[in-house]
Model the fold of this input.
Amino acid sequence: MTYCTVVEFEWDGDFDHEGFRRTLGRLSEESPSPEGLLSRITGIDSSGARVIEVWRSGDDAQAFAKQSAPLLATVPMPPPSRVTGFEVTSYEVA
Done:
């Protein structure tokens, strides 16, 4: 069943927002879309960032999380303040 993940980051005014934005962009450019990813939405503002991903299945989301963990551990960014996932009951793209 289709699965959605939401990862949120919070930071204070001293955090390097532009550095974080460049890091997200570089990670996206250097890696092809992971197996099973249907869509990814990222947003950054003055208080934090959000990454919303829709996956073909929960297993695909979990496999990507395990695969990307070592790379993300090398990136200078705060730990997520919230991580959630759920089975999708409706997914519409206009």
Notes: The chain has a mean pLDDT of 86.
